[in-house]
Each structure stands twice: as C-alpha cells, then as structure tokens.
Design goal:
The chain is mainly alpha-helical. It has 8 helices and 3 strands; from the N terminus they run βββαααααααα. The chain has 2 domains: 35 residues, no CATH class; 192 residues, no CATH class. A 3-stranded antiparallel β-sheet has the order 1-2-3, with no helix packed on it.
Length: 238
C-alpha cells in the first residue's frame, strides 16, 4: 500500500492517513483510513528525578554555596545535568519544551526542600535533636554522606532559624553566609577563615544540642562521589 494523503490536521496523539486499497474495485471497500500514532511527549524518568533530588540536596548542604535564594543554586544543578547528560536526550537544553520540564523540576526541588527543611529545623529545636540526627533527616533519599562540613551547614541553618523562624528565614541564611564570606576576604587565608567560622557554628550547636560523641560529625573527608562532583562544580563556578 502507498501513502496517498492525510485527512484533517495533525492531532495531539497522532493523525489519520488515507491509504490506497489495491483490492478496491467496483464492489471494493475503497481507500482505507489508518491511524498513525505520534511519538509520546518526553518526560523525566524516575532515575533522572532521583538524580536531580540528590544534586539539589548536595547543593543546599555544600559549604561552598554562597546563597540559597535566587538562580545561583538552580543553575548549579542545571549545569551539572547538562554537563553529564544524565538520562536526558543530547542537546535537550536546545529544545525549549523539554528543557522547561527539567528546569521546573529542579526549581520545585529547591522550593520543596526549603519548605520541608524549615519544618525539620523547627522540630529539631523542639526535640533537642543532635546535629547528626538532623543532618541524616535532611539527606534522606539522596546520595550524600553526613560529615563535618555538611553538619556545619545544617548548624548554620539551625542557628539562623533560632533567631529568625519567619518568612525571611532563607534570606537571613543568605545574609549570614555573605557575612562569613565577606569577613574572610579574598586573601590566601580565605578558605581557612571560612572553615573556622563554620567550625565555630558547629561547635556551638553541639554544645547546645549534644552529639559530642558522634565521630561522623568530626569527619572532614569522607564525601560521596556526588558530593565531590557538586563541590568541585560550585568552586569552579564561583
């Protein structure tokens, strides 16, 4: 059979084509209309969604991050995804419709965690949870590992929440981060000064909420491959 023409405009889920019927005669059935299915719309796979969640968590718990609000954290995740092509069609960023789905999922990932983490911090203060237990809750369903720098980030969030639990909480976290980075300056001792500030915040948290005997909180080096990748990307992008 040969393709003769198309009947009607293309439809969302396919279109109709008219095929010539070689058996048609004076008493034949004439042309035959068949339905051709269109390719299904591309959607994020379960694996891609899981990877994005892990990257969002790793970004939010990176001591190299300069701010939680704005496009910076979102762009970090999007650039990592583009660079590694994780379960995505090559060049997807050039397909506006498909790329919009990825961007929306990343944005929603940050928004959701910012909301959930505030509630987790509130409960942790009420229940006097040690920093390790709080960190373990925040990294749930990600490929991150609890270690000292990550706990320092959580301690920073908790210290800010104690002073500002309201709607401007994340802005206040950014203000505190900016204060730490600005105070460190731009000299050779910058990283040392930043680490010292975070260590002091973690030390105060452990004094207030316990957890002094947990060796994982003292671990500065055991990061997952995911955390290493995210840290290196953020440090390079800054």
């Amino acid at each position: 059979m040969s393709l003769k023409g198309m009947v009607g405009p293309p439809m969302r889920y396919g279109y109709n084509v008219v095929l010539a019927n070689p058996c048609a005669g004076p008493y034949g059935m004439g042309n035959v209309t068949e339905r051709v299915a269109a390719a299904p719309d591309w959607e994020l796979s379960g694996g891609l969604q899981t990877n994005i969640v892990s990257y969002v968590v790793a970004n939010m718990l990176s001591s190299s991050l300069h701010a939680y609000k704005g496009e910076g954290p979102i762009n970090h995740v999007l650039n990592i995804l583009k660079r590694n092509c994780l379960d995505m069609p090559p060049g997807i960023e050039y397909n506006a419709a498909k790329w919009k789905k990825v961007v929306s999922f990343v944005q929603d990932g940050f928004t959701e965690r910012q909301s959930v983490w505030k509630k987790t911090l509130k409960k942790s203060i009420k229940d006097t949870q040690n920093i390790y237990d709080v960190a373990a809750l925040l990294i749930k369903k990600s490929n991150c590992k609890v270690m000292a720098p990550l706990c320092s980030c959580v301690a920073l969030m908790r210290s800010v929440y104690r002073a500002d639990p309201g709607s401007s909480f994340w802005e206040s976290v950014d203000t505190k981060l900016a204060e730490i980075h600005n105070k460190a300056g731009m000299g050779d001792s910058r990283d040392k000064c930043i680490n010292k500030a975070f260590k002091a915040i973690l030390k105060k948290d452990r004094e207030d909420f316990g957890g002094e005997d947990n060796s994982a909180v003292n671990n500065h080096y055991t990061r997952s491959d995911l955390q290493v990748l995210v840290e290196e990307h953020i440090e390079t992008a800054i």
